[in-house]
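Board notes (copied after class):
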Amino acid sequence: MRKLLVLADDFTGGLDTGAQFAAAGIPTVVTTNPAYCAADHEEDTVLVVDVETRHLLPEKARLSIAGNLSGVRHYSEMPLKILKAEQLVGGEAAMDQILHDLFNREIDPMYPYLTYQDFLDACSLTEEELNLD
């Protein structure tokens, strides 16, 4: 489970920051891809994301960072939403069956992805039902 997220304004700064953590023996990943936050890398304790904002004017940089943080928040909330869905579908056994069916479905080679909407449909839930507010 990640314990620290660092947003760097350029790749050089991101590498330098990541190197400091790595030199201290702390598992670290440096990436230019904010979507990497969605990946499951439990051994990572530091994620450094280069958000490439150094060249932007302050307001545009703020908007870019806000967008990156929004994505991080979305993926950070996902385990809680899955737990809530588990409760709403009738417990662990029911969720295990739903996940089994989702991951063992016939895959369309033109679109081999599993979306959040696919998950909601399989659970017969709506996005509103899984809101954490």
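Comment from the instructor: The two ends are 23 Å apart (CA to CA). The chain has a mean pLDDT of 80.
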